[in-house]
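Handout, section 4.2: multi-component inputs.
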Amino acid sequence: MNAYLETLGSRAKAAAAQLNKTSEKERSAALLAAADRLERSAEEILAANAEDVKRAEEKGVSAPMVDRLRLSGARIADIAAGLRQVAGLSSPVGETIYAYRKENGLLIEEKRVPFGVIGIIFESRPNVAADAFGLCFKTANAVILRGGSDAISSNAAVVNALRGALAEVGMDENAVQLIEDTSRETAAEFMKMKKYLDLLIPRGGAGLIRSVTENASVPVIETGTGNCHIYVDESADIDMAANIVFNAKTQRLGVCNACESLVVHAKIADKALPAIYAKLKEKNVEVRGDERALAACGEFVPAAEEDYGKEYLDAVLSVKTVDSVDEAIAHINRYNTGHSESIVTENRENAEKFLNEVDAAAVYVNASTRFTDGFEFGLGAEIGISTQKLHARGPMGLRALTTTKFYCRGNGQVR
Amino acid sequence: MNAYLETLGSRAKAAAAQLNKTSEKERSAALLAAADRLERSAEEILAANAEDVKRAEEKGVSAPMVDRLRLSGARIADIAAGLRQVAGLSSPVGETIYAYRKENGLLIEEKRVPFGVIGIIFESRPNVAADAFGLCFKTANAVILRGGSDAISSNAAVVNALRGALAEVGMDENAVQLIEDTSRETAAEFMKMKKYLDLLIPRGGAGLIRSVTENASVPVIETGTGNCHIYVDESADIDMAANIVFNAKTQRLGVCNACESLVVHAKIADKALPAIYAKLKEKNVEVRGDERALAACGEFVPAAEEDYGKEYLDAVLSVKTVDSVDEAIAHINRYNTGHSESIVTENRENAEKFLNEVDAAAVYVNASTRFTDGFEFGLGAEIGISTQKLHARGPMGLRALTTTKFYCRGNGQVR
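Output:
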């Protein structure tokens, strides 16, 4: 392993051991100090961010990407508010989730404990550095951040402020560290750093997630790609369907819980598709349909088979007509990414069938897929949305950042 | 993917979809039928097992290995009893673990659901086929088994009986399938079969586990290697320490929760080590110690540094002397495999420090590490002991074979 990562890793491990001895009260106080310090450091952070933005513009990075990168006083205040909010959440560390006393008197208790050291690999949004730190720190985990090279100055300034705050309150500042070497080689080594990392969470687009899951030997939680479907059943309320599809497709185009594909029962297609399109048209959504969909709505363009596997993250929607709820479920289970899927129906039996048989982190009846989110689900915050089945599935709050441990207390018991 | 695995995979996926629609009552009845059928098939199973045993003996396989492979009428009855016991356990599938109603009326419920298709890769014990099937089936998962070539005839006969029972009760017999091609190439492809496998669990020795974690792209739960320590603190009750070490080292030598290393406070070494050795000697345990241990007990032999990292699975024990509980914890966290660690002490503060700071699935005060086991911990059964932190840690019962899903019920909610 390169000496730089070795140093970061051993410092993080030592910081995690210290964090494990802190109380939740101490960690919450440190998070409040970090929020204050971020706000007090706004000038330096904005200066660093201006460097990143300038470099990106010179490199010809696209306007939406530059936008993701850009910070402002208001955005820094939002980030600080996020840390204060996490400080106020209740940490699951220490919760007893199982207890059993054997006849011989041995008491066995399974409790939630921190993972130890968590690695976060993320792309250009500098707010991720502070958000991820907040959640990891609240659950007594040390974090090593590896952000994109585009945001390196902003990330360094944010992490510098966070570390300053930890030092202020007498905590080990190595509870948060940034990998300042943004080379691909170092990232590749980081993903294999099993000696120090207990968990790795990638935050970003499909390409980043794939690269991490393929190359990491550290345990990974996959987050986020969403090819989300809405199925409009034969018995659907058409107005409701149009509202839900409009919201799920257009409220925010570039998010993982946006609707990318509409599945519609053939018997309702002639009425439902024109009604749905009447709304989508307001936002200039291009609709790509199969033959029966095209017959129902003349303004659609033909879909290719590969359209059904696409996460557009754009003003485009595919449409597939089906002859039954079973066919809808089979289509969705074939093309989805295990994120969020919704049925619009007045038929209770079809609703339950859809909920039980569609294989995804979140399944809905008569609601927009846009609700799949840690805040919306009442978790208080989220470190990402897991589309895998191991450990955590769907929006991940503080609980997902803990593991468990069996505590066994005896007075000489043997087998 | 090779056509054979493709066929097994798609059949398993279809069986999992069917299983997902069954009730727990139906699955329990099927498990009872499987237990009966196994007993009725004893003659065929023993005949198949005799072939495996003969082949192993001709190949010159070691006596303990042949022993692991060998079945008898009594062992088949034990396997059947295991299935009946799992039939009687309560399945966690369907449990609601989180519920939240939004102000807008949307009801969000997080429930336990089956993984889908689980792969099990195991070595020569033919009982694993039936045991793993029982736990997977109870939680409505289809299972694909890949056993060692040594036990291929026995495994085929066992799986044949299980499939026969499923057919008898009108269930999809592809809920359990055996990979009959035991080549390494097919095993390697199996580990990458993400299209069909939701989870992979290796059951066997350290070499098998390592090979699976290094080569699989399917999510894996690591099970089982245990370099378990017992730390005898300065304040320990020496008789209790001797009893616990004797039990943890010698009750069964070849198991993952056996004690492999003794850590002892220097101030108590002169008294404790001879007392402990007096008992270990009865079972001809070889003790390899550091300098101070050798000084305390003349019958020890010198330990090399690498002894501290060894899972002997044999009548050998390493001994390390330390000057404090902190040094003991640091030594254990350096050499352990995250399985089970115990402190023998009368000092409450040291006990709590040890429990909190030792990084392992199970931590003990004043008890033998031999209790780390699903049955002993009251889980009713176990599919293995996880030494990783993701998803499941320690003995894994039925809960570890489930994932979760958010069910969201609305009446038109949009964001």
